[in-house]
Amino acid sequence: MDSSGSHSYTYSVGSNPVSYDSQTLHVLFAGESQTLPLHQAGPKIYDYYLLHFIESGSGSFHTEQHKYELGEGDCFLIHPAQLVSYISDPNQPWRYRWAAFTGAEADRLVQQAGFSPDTPVLAAAEGRVIPDALAGMMGAFNANRESAHLTSLGYLYLIIGEAAERLSTHSRLPGTGSQVQRTVKQMIHYMSSQYAHPVSIEQMCDSLGYNRAYLSRVFKQETGLSPVTYLLKLRIDKSRQLLRERPELSVEQVASSVGLTDALYFSRQFKRFCGQSPTAYRIATARRGDNSSR
């Protein structure tokens, strides 16, 4: 920023070449500006979300409930139907980037990030994820290709992901009940999405950032099963579905499809959980289906 107090006003914006037509999520435009001292917008109401990232300078952001003094690295999100205003500092006016977005999914996405009318500010965002994503949106729109619509959504999700990481109210330290339940849900989701691959419990623990002993303990407290047993039961349950619905698949192919490449091990574990071999289970379910159709 020019320390002499002389600032040249700049303003540039790129609009989405794909017009908004009730899409579930849509970035309307993205821009950047070096504001003049005491540059003010509002008080006014917007009918879309408008996110600003402050690259340099300072100023104040006013909502219906609060006033925020903001500077370099801060973000503020204007919510639809909220009366707001914002004004640049008289000596070090803001230089910022922004993007506007809307759509049926926008509310849910904003809530997932941790923003609300009472929490509209992300303080001192680290790194370059958000400003680079905003710049990427603007560049994509200025290229005036229809693919820019999809590109802008990718950048928006990057921004939301970064905000969620920073605004999350959940501590990364284990201990609280809500955190334990959240961690167990993450483990269940991980296994439910990865069961068909040769995933290990160690890999899952590494991806979640906890040691295996801790995760095994809290998982069993919440579910009554160890992670190893839960994953195996999940695979057996999926294999039962395949045995019933895909008669053209061999037992070996079913085993491989649920992440168990050793067919003999699969058959032993299937009998352990179901009381009969995979082949006997398939024959019995097929016979019951034939009898019910008569």
Commentary on this structure:
It is built from ten helices and ten strands. It folds into two domains: 10-167, Jelly Rolls (Sandwich); 171-294, Orthogonal Bundle (Arc Repressor Mutant, subunit A), CATH 1.10.10. It is an alpha+beta fold and 294 residues long. The strands form two sheets. It has a six-stranded antiparallel β-sheet, covered by helices on one side. A four-stranded antiparallel β-sheet has the order 3-8-5-6, with no helix packed on it. α1 (106-113) runs parallel beside α3 (148-167), α2 packs antiparallel against α3 and α4 (177-194) crosses α6 (212-223). The chain is 45% helix and 19% strand.
What's the quick description here?
The chain contains 10 helices and 10 strands. It has 294 residues and is α+β, with helices and mostly antiparallel strands.
Blueprint of the fold:
Blueprint: E1 10-15, E2 26-34, E3 40-44, E4 49-56, E5 58-62, E6 67-71, E7 75-78, E8 84-88, E9 95-102, H1 106-113, E10 121-122, H2 129-142, H3 148-167, H4 177-194, H5 201-208, H6 212-223, H7 227-245, H8 251-257, H9 263-274, H10 278-292
Helix pairs in contact: 1-3, 2-3, 4-6
